[in-house]
Amino acid sequence: QLKETVRKFRWLLEEKEMTLEMDLEEVRFTGDPAFLEKVWENLLSNALKYTEIGGAIEVVLTEQPDHVTVLIQDNGIGIDEEGLERIFDRFYRADDSRTQETGGTGLGLSIVMQVVKLHGGTINAVSRKGQGTTFTVMFPKL
Ligand code: ATP
Ligand code: MG
């Protein structure tokens, strides 16, 4: 499922001369496939949008006894502290994203948050301006 979404992003990555490091084992957990696809789509498209040409994105999937963890990391423009508090808000877009030519509504992450919550999971973001961003999503294995 996540693998398929990542595959769809391959050609976009090549266009931006990015490398995508991926370490996906086969991991299964219960959830709504259509909604979960939205999560991967949003997180991957963000990583792509907010990372310069030639950047690197890494996706790491790990499995623990009672939950799975998905880490999506980029070395893009990053988010400052103030922005980090607001990225999950509806319609919020950081200044440097708005001034860039990249489009977007600012809804992506608020949808991601809703879907993650509906699955009983958690998501958090760690970022450094100018250095990159890491999203960690955790889903319980129901
Ligand atoms: P949409 O997803 O609706 O197309 P969007 O990508 O702007 O629009 P969100 O996905 O909700 O909206 O993200 C909100 C804001 O968080 C973005 O506008 C951007 O400022 C910041 N952001 C999100 N992901 C990253 C990232 N990987 N690197 C840097 N900034 C990010
Ligand atoms: Mg987005």
From TrEMBL:
Member of the two-component regulatory system HssS/HssR involved in intracellular heme homeostasis and tempering of staphylococcal virulence. HssS functions as a heme sensor histidine kinase which is autophosphorylated at a histidine residue and transfers its phosphate group to an aspartate residue of HssR. HssR/HssS activates the expression of hrtAB, an efflux pump, in response to extracellular heme, hemin, hemoglobin or blood. Residues 1-142 form the Histidine kinase domain. Signal peptide: none annotated. This is Heme sensor protein HssS. It is found in: Cell membrane. The chain holds residues 308 to 449 of 449 of the full protein.
